[in-house]
Each structure stands twice: as C-alpha cells, then as structure tokens.
Amino acid sequence: MEREAVTVRIPADLLQQAKQFREGSESFNELIVEAIAHEVRRRRSLAAHQRIVARSAEVEAKTGIQQSSVDLIRQLRAGEGRRD
User: Which of 33, 48, 57, 82 is surrounded by the most beta carbons within 10 Å?
Assistant: First the structure.
C-alpha cells in the first residue's frame, strides 16, 4: 500500500491517552492508520444504511406499505403452493 505523509494536529491530552493505550511495539502511525480505517468503515456503513432507508421510503411512497411475507414464506417452507 502506498503511503503519504501528512501532518495532523492532535490535542495534547488525547495524544497522551493514545500513547498510554498503545499495544507493545505498536507504532503511533499504526494506531492512527487503524483508527482512520475503522472510522472510514463506520462512515461507509452509515452511508449505506442511509441509502437503504431513503430507498425504502421511496418504495413505500410509491407502493404503500407492503404486506408481511412471513406467512407466505412459512407456507413455502411447509411445501404449500410449490410448483416443483
């Protein structure tokens, strides 16, 4: 993975806490990279969830609230109505 050097200004107390909780020989750089990767995954997941909620609202607005498919699924699992 290609790396790029950046300057980050971190509050002194947060930096001190981060240094305290570093594991063994883990570098501060590794800690920061892992934290950023975690936050990017979290934000990507949140964005996907927001798109799903928006799409659900669009579908509901167009078609209304759909009936639950639970009963149909149970019937199919029980073999009722199958066209095998």
Answer: 33
Contact 21, 32 (CB under 8 A): no
Q: Which amino acid is at 72?
A: L
What pLDDT digit, counting tens, does each position of 35-79 carry?
999 999 999 999 999 999 999 999 999 999 888 889 988 988 888
Longest C-alpha distance within the chain, in Å? 68
In angstroms, rounded to a whole number, what is the distance separating the alpha carbons of residues 73 and 78? 9
Chain centroid to CA 1: how far? Answer: 23
The Cβ of residue 32 has, within 10 Å, a number of other Cβ atoms equal to: 14
Q: Cα(47)–Cα(43) distance, rounded to whole angstroms?
A: 6
